[in-house]
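Entry 14. Ran structure prediction on the chain below.
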Amino acid sequence: MAIKKGDFIEIEFTGKIKDGGEVFDTNVKRVAEENNFEIKNIKPFILAIGQKMLPKGFDEDLEGKEAGKEYTLELKPEEAFGKRNREMIKMIPTKRFLEQRINPERGMQLSLDGQLVKVLSNSGGRTLVDFNNPLAGKEVIYEYKILREVKDQKEKIDGLQDFLFKKVFDFEIKNQKIIFKVEKQFEPFVKVFSSKFKEVLGLEVNAEIIEKKKEKQKKEKNNST
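Output, structure tokens:
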């Protein structure tokens, strides 16, 4: 049966730069090992089609495909990671890096204000930084296989929260509402993305605050003495 927008699927894929064939992303363990990638958390990806959980052109290509088949897709920059934008190259005071105990050097890639940036040059107390996505301006190739359509509600919720929160919290569903059991510091994340869960799954979201494990263990220990 053909996959359609809104369906959840489990997918494995490998992304390569068209010019040279360098692998820049994969969730296939064998490919990750061959390219010396970190394999600790390598696993197939669960996603909702049409929710921008993959580059635009890749997401759109999934519609109409079938589980169990392998596909190859070529994407132009505007369909993948965008064209390079000169305005994204900025001069920044070097002291901003030094305040974070970072000595910026040419060619270095690092996180700045939550973005991955590349240092182009550093002189006279100023650092030239490229905020463009490292893959901006490049044509890419994706090889992928849809393993199955995901029907289980728990798998859907776990897949969506893994993508949005970068974590997976325990939860329960009551009266058409997902109740995530989270520590206090994670409550804002749940609130920020509650509308996305509503949009994709049609369920309201709430957070139930739980104690930190260490604090809970400490209280249990004190109560037992």
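The longest strand covers residues 140-150. Will compare against last week's run tomorrow.
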